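2024-03-11 09:14:02 DEBUG pipeline.ingest accepted 1 chain
2024-03-11 09:14:02 DEBUG pipeline.ingest length=146
2024-03-11 09:14:03 DEBUG pipeline.predict start
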Amino acid sequence: MSLRDGSAKMSKSDASDLSRINLTDDADTISKKIRKAKTDPAPLPEALEGLAERPEADNLVGIYAALADITKAAVMDEFAGKQFSVFKPALADLAVAKLAPIAAEMRRIADDPGFIDGVLADGGERASAIAERTMKGVREIVGLLG
């Protein structure tokens, strides 16, 4: 969900880059976006049911749960009643730990056009081999031997 609107999806087409975490964002950018994520002034609720009417809180708890591979209930067990000033830094640290290595690898690959060209050439060769076998069969069925 969007970091600026808990009822909307994260989207590349959103005008605000602060609404989403891009896989190419560096650690500082990820942390900044999470720190600026929209919340309300109340602390996290004591129970999971308390998130029902708080879409931004529910969104951030959901992101934490997904990144940590735990349930929202487990997140609430750890952070129930805590202020966002405690929760957001923990979420930022987790997001950086999970997403920064992906961003670094994407930047490494993007900075190496030879690697990209090699991957594309290899994929093209393998696809051509498969397509040629298929087309040979089609030509035999249709009667276009040769």
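2024-03-11 09:14:41 DEBUG pipeline.report Helices lie at 27-35, 55-68, 72-79, 84-110, 113-142.
2024-03-11 09:14:41 DEBUG pipeline.predict end
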